[in-house]
Amino acid sequence: MKKLLKHYLPTHESLARNRWLAPFGNTLFHPRLWHLNRHSVAGAVAVGLFCGLIPGPFQMPSAACCCMLLRVNLPLALLTTLYTNPLTIVPLYLLAFSIGAWIIGGEVGQFIAPPALADQGLLAWAHSLGDWMAHLGQPLVIGLIALAAGLAMTGYLLTRLAWRTYLVRSWRQRRLKRKKSS
Question: Which residue has the higher pLDDT, 22 or 137?
Answer without folding.
Answer: 137
